[in-house]
Amino acid sequence: GFEEQLVGVSLEQPVDVKVTFPEDYQAEELKGKEAVFKCVIHKIEKKELPELDDDFAKDVSEFDTLEEYKKEIKDNLEKKKADTAKTEKENAVVDKAIENATMEIPEAMVKTQVNQMIDDFARRIQSQGLTMDQYMQFTGSTMETMQEQMRPQAMKRIQSRLVLEKVAEVENIQISDEKLDEELTKLAEMYKMELDKFKEMIDDYQKDQMKKDLAVQEAVTLMADSAKEVEAKAEEA
Question: pTM for this one?
Answer without folding.
Answer: 0.64
